[in-house]
Amino acid sequence: MTMNQQQNPSDQHDSGLRTPDSGPSKYIHPLTIGTLRLENNLCLAPMAGFTNVAFRLIAKEVGGCGLVASEMVAAIGPSQHGAHERFRVLTQNVAAEKPLAMQVYGRDPEMCGATAAMLDQAGADIIDLNCGCPVKKAKQSGCGVALMREPELVGRIIKAMSQATSKPVTVKMRLGFDANNRTMIEVATAAVENGAQAVFVHARTGESKHGTAVDLSGLAEVKQAMTKLRGPQFPVIANGSMETAAAIRLAKDEAGADGYQIGRAACGDPWLFRNLIAELTGMPLYQPSYDERRTLLLRHFDLITELFGEQRGTRVMRKYTFFYCNGLPGVRRFRDRFCRMADRTEFIQVVDDFFTNLRAGRHAEGDIAEHLTLFDKGGQGDEGTGEDH
Ligand SMILES: Cc1cc2nc3c(=O)[nH]c(=O)nc-3n(C[C@H](O)[C@H](O)[C@H](O)COP(=O)(O)O)c2cc1C
After folding, report:
1. Which pLDDT tens digit goes with each residue over 278-333?
2. 101 forms bridges with which residues in the sheet?
3. Mutate which of 47, 71, 201 to test ligand 1's pocket (most atoms within 8 Å of Cβ)?
4. Could you give the maximum distance between any two Cα atoms of the chain, in Å?
5. Structural domain boundaries enclosing 50
6. Could you tell me the pTM of the whole model?
C-alpha cells in the first residue's frame, strides 16, 4: 500500500463519524475556519519529529479527526544546507489526510510570508504560525513562545503570511511567555486584526510543564476577547491535555472552546479521536484488538519507510513502536529489541514476537501492563526544531 493509494472504503476502520446517530453534539460538531469547513472539531496537534505524513494519514483514517497538522517548518529560506530535503519530508502530504494545516516557525515577516507561500504551494489547507515552542533555541532566537512578548511583531508576521496565501492563516500560541507575562489577549488580538482566522491556544505559559494543569480561565479570556472582536462564531481551539472527554467538556463549559487539539496522547493511539467522538456523542467505545494494533503498526512501518527509506525509516519507527505497545504487558522487556531494530526483517520479527507472546499470554513472570513515560514531562525540551526525526 502506498501513501497515494486510498484504502478501499470497506477496508477502512469506521471513523465513528459516518454512524448515522452520531450527529453534532454540544462538544463535537463541524467547525469553519475562514473558507474551510472541518467535518469535526477534533484536531491533531503539530509535533516536530512525529506528525509526518504517515502519522497524520493514520490519525485521519483510523481516528477520523477533523484536521491534521504538520511539524513546524522553519522560515529559513531555500539556500540553507539540506533545506530542500527537509522541506520535502516536512511537507509531503496526500489527499486522504486532508484537510491539513502546515506550520511556519520564524520571526521575520518577509521570510514567514515566503514560507507561507511555499506551504500553500506544497498543499497546505491552513497555514499556522508557531508562537508556542518553548525550547531554548526558540527563545534565544526570538521565535516560538518568544513571540508572545512581541504582539506587534506577531501582527506583522500574520499580515505578511495572509498576503502571501489565500488559504486561512491561524496562530498557535500559549497564554504568555511566562506566568508574569500573560499576553494572550494582545497576541490573539494582533493576530486576528491582521488576518488570522482561528486561534489555537495551548492553555499554559511558556515555562509551565506539560504535567501541570491547563489554565482554562486564560483560555476563557481569549474566547471572550475574540467574541468581542469577531463574534461568537470565531474559532478558539483549546490545546493542552485535551485527551479525555472530561477535559473537553470542561474546556467547552468553562472556557467556551470551539474545538480541541490533541498531541501526545494520539501517539500510538490513533483510535483516541474516534473514541472521544463516540464518548461525547453517546456512542459505544472502540477497543482495538491486538491483531488490529499489530496490523496498524506494520502499515505505519510501510508508510514511514516510503517517506524515509528503509534504514532511516526503521530507526524512526522505533519510537512509534514504543507508543503502539505502551501499556501492554511485556513492553519493558522488549525495550532493548525495539531500540535495536535496524531493517524491515528485524522489525517484523520483533513485532511478531511481541504480539505472539501477548496473544499466547506468554508473558514473563512479573510482566505487567505497564505505561512507560515516553515524553519528557518537563515540556521544555520536547518540542523539536523541525529538523530532527
Ligand atoms: C514532541 C513534541 C513536538 C512538538 N512540536 C510542536 C510543533 O512543531 N509546533 C507546535 O506548535 N507545537 C508543538 N508541540 C506542542 C504540541 O502541539 C502541543 O501544544 C502540546 O504537546 C500540548 O498538547 P498535548 O497535551 O495534547 O500534547 C510539540 C509537542 C511535543 C510533545
Report:
1. 999 999 999 999 999 999 999 999 999 999 999 999 999 999 999 999 888 888 88
2. 69, 126
3. 47
4. 62
5. 27-280
6. 0.91
